[in-house]
Each structure stands twice: as C-alpha cells, then as structure tokens.
Write a structure and sequence with these properties.
Blueprint: H1 3-13, H2 21-52, H3 61-112, H4 117-129, H5 132-159, H6 161-170, H7 173-208, H8 210-215, H9 219-271, H10 277-319, E1 340-348, E2 354-363, E3 368-372, H11 379-386, E4 394-399, E5 402-403, H12 409-413, E6 416-419, E7 428-429, H13 430-434, H14 443-452, H15 456-461, E8 469-470, H16 479-493, E9 497-501, H17 509-522, E10 527-531, H18 535-539, E11 543-548, E12 551-556, H19 558-564, H20 567-571
Parallel strand pairs: 3-10, 3-11, 6-9, 9-10
Antiparallel strand pairs: 1-2, 1-4, 4-5, 7-8, 11-12
Helix pairs in contact: 1-10, 2-3, 2-5, 2-10, 3-4, 3-5, 4-7, 4-10, 5-6, 5-10, 6-9, 7-9, 7-10, 9-10, 14-16, 16-17
Length: 578
C-alpha cells in the first residue's frame, strides 16, 4: 500500500473523533440549499408576475415579504454550519494532540530517539493544525457537493430535461479535472511538507548548537545556510500556490462555460417559444448554485492534500510501538531496600545492531556499583533498560526477585531516582525544580535536599534565593549548579535506587568535588549505580563493570581491575573517559 493510501486510511480512522458534528453540518448546509431553491423560486415568480403578467408590487407583497425571513434564516443556518465546522476541526485537533502526547509518554526516551525532537514538535504543532480544514471543511463538503446538486437536479428535471441533461453531463468534469490537477499538486505539496520538516529540524539543531558555533566562529556561516534553506522553502511555496491558482482557474472556467451553455440553451428555447420565462429564469438562478459546491470542493481539496502530507508524519509517530509489559502487571512491594539482578541480558536496536550481548551484573543494597567503558559500549542502553524504557529481547532484570517486565512502569519509576548526564530544568523556581513531580511541596525537605547536594551555597547567593526563576536551559545557572540541582532532586525523592549517568562529566574541579561529596552521601543506605566518567567515582565503587562493544569484559574492584592490565587499566592511564 502506498504512503498516500496509508495516510488517507489513517485520516479516515480519526473520523470518529468528530462524533456526529459532521452529520449536523451536512444537514444544515443541505437545508440552506433547499432554502436557496425556495428563494430562487420566489424571486423568479415575483419577476415573472411583475414583468410579464402586469402584476404590481403590491399584488406580490406577500411573496416579497417572505424573502427577508428566508435571507435571514439562510444566514443563521450558514453561520451555525460554520461554527460547527470550526468545532469539528478544534475537537479533532485537541483529541489528536492528547492521544499523541499520551502515546509519546508511553514510548519512553528510547523509542522517541527514533524520531528527532524537531520532527515531533513539528508534528504536534504544524502537523495537527494542518488537519483542521480537512475535518472542518473537506469531509462535510464531500456530502454537500453531492446532495445540493442532486436536490437542484430533482427540481430542474421536471421543468426542463435539456437543462438537467447539461447539468448531468458537465458536473462530473469539474471533480475530474480537480483530481487530475490535484495529483500533481499532491506531489508538490508532499515535497513542500518534507522541506518544512527538514528546515525546522535543522533550525532547531542550529539553535541548540549556537554556543559551540559561536566558539568556532561558524554562526554566520550557519545563518547563511538557514537563510538559503528558507529561501528555497519560499520558492517551493510559490510553486504550490501556482498549482493551486491554476486548479482554481480551471474549475472556474469549467463552471462558467457550463453555466453559459445552460443560458444559451434557455435563451434559444425562449426565443423559439419552447419554454416559459418563469421556468427559464428559475433555472438560470439555480445554475450558479448547482456548480458552486463543485467549485468550492476544488478549494477544499487542497486542504485534503495538506492533511495527507501531514498525516504521514503523524501516522509514523503513532505507529511506534510503546514499551510492552507482560499481560499482567503488579506493583513492586514497598521496601527501603532495592536489589537488582541482571541475567544474560541481550538487546538489539534492529536486526543487525546488537547493543548488549549476555550481560550479567548485580546491584546489592547499599552498594555503589560503577559502569565504565568506551563510547558506544552499551552503557546508556543498559541504563534505559534498567529504567524500564524498553524491554530486552532475551534475558531478564530481577528487582527484589521480581521480573521487571511484570512490574507496573509508573510504580517502578517511583522507586528510582535518575540523574542524567545533562539534566533538564523546567521553567519555574528553584523549589519547583528540586521538588519536580511532587504533588505537595515540603519546603524544609527542599532545603535539606539542597544542603545534601551542596547546592544551598549558590542558591542562597541568588537574587531571590529558592524563589529564583530558572529557564529551561538552566539560565542563569552554570553546568555544575544545574548538576547539583539534579542531585538535590534525587535527595528530595529519597528513592531506594539511584542511577547516575556520568554526573561529573565536563565540570570544573570545584563543581566536581562538591558533586563527589554529594554522591557519597546519596549512596548511604541506598543502591547506587554510577556510569563512571571520572577516576574518583570509579575508585570508590564497591564493584566495577567494564563494557566493550555490548559485552561485559571485566568486573571487580578498582584494585583488582588495575592489576589485571586490561581495558580498565588502559583507561586509567588518564581520566576514565566513557
């Protein structure tokens, strides 16, 4: 099945999110069409009576007074149809965003890494917004495009079969040419959407790497490249608009020619006396309205093209499989002690990439276990598996003797505190960042956690102390201060298992020393796993596991591994780099 068919199928699957609102919109639009037929009939009747039957306006006052209520009623009906159409688009977008957000949460970091953050944000914002007109206008108009012309055709057929035949023959030409031109527009529109996604992803990468680019004096060069990509996107946008204008021109031309044909036939037959003015004028009033839904469909068809292009990206995200537990899950019994046993663990990212192969290790209560190895050896993968972000293809992880695959994910994460290598702060106060996730903030506990993490010294020096507002990038804090706030989170959570991912990487000596002391305190009466980056962290570990290319090649204490003259000893020749 082609990508377009898959996208169209996915769009149809989301129809249920709109409920019965599209049906109500169709009913209102068809009712408006019937009012239009009635309005046209009254106008033709009044003009025919006054012009050809010598009636006065006073004689036709009853019919004339009916016109304003019909105009007003049509206006109200059309307004309600527009409001309901907007509600359809708004409702579908809201529901899809909630579903996508919930799905992204279930995926976890490992599955999300398959899609870039720029791609995800583009799908969440522009992608879902692009679906609005598809559900609000295109889908309801599909029925309107059929029902209103059929209603007019039913009225015209008894009055003049020739005009009805012209309607019947020319009407299919408009959607036919709309689809023919639309196929070309669809390809252009999909390329345009891909360019927008690439531009957004590249621009986000440039923004994230701006400090490094400035350091290397490459910021102006990247700015010029972004400008060129933006100009290329602008040119392709003009190409899409050119195709859209061309299709509108063709549809308008076809409908105009069709109306002219009806007018010519009616004119000649009036001249030959084969038709009365009343029926001819009535049909001429209805002719533009017969083709109007077909012409409007050409405009709404471009909403479908845009939605199909966006749906491909959204469908790809929704098709990512979340982490699956076993059919039955259980809560981990509350215990201040956590032990972890990893047995014959293997994990593949795909059929060819073996990230971990037969890993066996243990983390006992009160132990400080270190994990070292060159870059790409599988350390981060192992941590993600321990956190429950994915499931291994073989082997098992036992937590207090219970298979992690059977433990409820949220319950397990409540028992673990994770301090990543590059902690993320939220936009809020220092208190908000330390007590992250807590339903009720305990201020004395926040202060105690900051003290244990050696963060209280710099917090007290901030202008507003613990109420200081911190940006998402950690502004105005340094890297070491951000790391200490992350450690304070772990102290505040007071979980029995702590996982630290290179907590002292890329820090100055003073920050490293403060964090090392905090780690020592953090490991008291807790199980501690540290992905080691600095020598001091490794030296103090109860047991050290050395990974290389996904395999466990060495294990033991610092002294034992140093004496073996293996990979670990080679790493010790300088600072232990992971």
């Amino acid at each position: 099945m082609s990508d377009d068919l898959l996208s169209s199928k996915w769009l149809k699957e989301q129809h249920a999110l709109a409920g019965n609102l599209p049906r109500r919109v169709v009913i209102l639009n068809v009712f408006s069409g019937w009012l239009l037929i009635l309005q046209s009939g009254l106008m033709a009747w009044i003009v025919n009576a006054v012009v050809f039957e010598a009636a006065t306006l006073g004689d036709q006052m009853v019919w004339i007074l009916l016109l304003p209520p019909i105009f007003l009623l049509r206006g109200v009906v059309n307004q309600q149809a527009e409001r309901l159409s907007f509600r359809i688009g708004s409702q579908v977008r809201s529901q899809l965003r909630l579903e996508l957000f919930d799905h992204l949460q279930q995926l976890g970091p490992m599955r999300l890494s398959q899609s870039g953050s720029a791609e995800i944000s583009h799908a969440m914002i522009e992608g879902i917004d692009a679906l609005h007109d598809y559900y609000a206008k295109y889908l309801p108009h599909l029925s309107v495009m059929t029902l209103i012309p059929i209603s007019i055709l039913i009225v015209v057929l008894p009055l003049d079969w020739v005009s009805a035949l012209v309607f019947l023959v020319t009407a299919p030409l408009i959607p036919f040419f709309m689809i023919v031109i639309g196929k070309g527009a669809e390809r252009v529109n999909q390329r345009q959407w891909q360019k927008l996604a690439r531009l957004g992803a590249y621009f986000l990468d440039v923004l994230r790497g701006l400090p490094t680019l400035k350091t290397l004096n490459l910021s102006r060069q990247e700015a010029k490249l972004v400008a060129r990509m933006s100009d290329d996107y602008r040119r392709s946008t003009l190409t899409v608009l050119k195709v859209a204008f061309l299709s509108s021109l063709v549809l308008e031309f076809l409908s105009t020619v069709s109306i002219a044909m009806v007018a010519v036939f009616i004119g000649f037959r009036l001249m030959w006396g084969e038709m009365f003015f009343l029926q001819g004028f009535f049909i001429l009033l209805l002719a533009p309205e017969f083709y109007l839904p077909l012409r409007s469909m050409g405009v709404h068809y471009h909403a479908r093209l845009q939605a199909v292009a966006a749906a491909g990206q959204l469908a790809d995200l929704m098709e990512l499989e979340p982490v699956k537990n076993q059919s039955t899950t259980q809560e981990l019994p509350e215990s201040p002690h956590i032990t972890v046993e990893v047995s014959n663990l293997s994990y593949r990212y795909d059929a060819n990439a073996l990230a971990l192969d037969g890993i066996n290790l243990s983390i006992g209560f009160g132990e400080k276990v270190a994990l070292v190895g060159p870059s790409g050896s599988g350390k981060s993968t192992l941590i993600n598996l321990l956190l429950g972000f994915d499931r291994p293809q073989s082997g098992e992880i036992l937590v207090n003797g219970i298979d992690l695959a059977t433990i409820d994910g949220e319950d397990w994460l409540r028992q673990v505190a994770w301090v990543p290598q590059n902690p993320r702060l939220i936009h809020g106060s220092v208190i908000d960042n330390i007590a992250l996730g807590a339903e009720v903030v305990d201020l004395p506990r926040v202060r105690q956690a900051a003290h244990l993490a050696r963060a209280d010294r710099f917090i007290d020096q901030l202008k507003a102390g613990y109420e200081t507002q911190v940006g998402e990038g950690g502004q105005p804090l340094s890297g070491g201060e951000v790391q200490r706030l992350a450690l304070a989170r772990a102290f505040y959570k007071d979980a029995p298992l702590i996982i630290l991912d290179e907590p002292t990487a890329s820090l100055d000596a003073e920050s490293e020393a403060a964090i090392q002391l905090a780690i020592e305190d953090l490991g008291i009466n807790r199980s501690l796993l540290v992905v080691a980056h600095r020598l001091q962290t490794v030296r103090n570990a109860s047991r050290i596991y050395v990974l290389k290319q996904g395999r466990l090649v060495e294990q033991g204490s610092h002294e034992q591994l140093e004496s073996q003259k293996g990979i670990y000893a080679e790493m010790l020749q300088g600072v232990v780099h992971a």
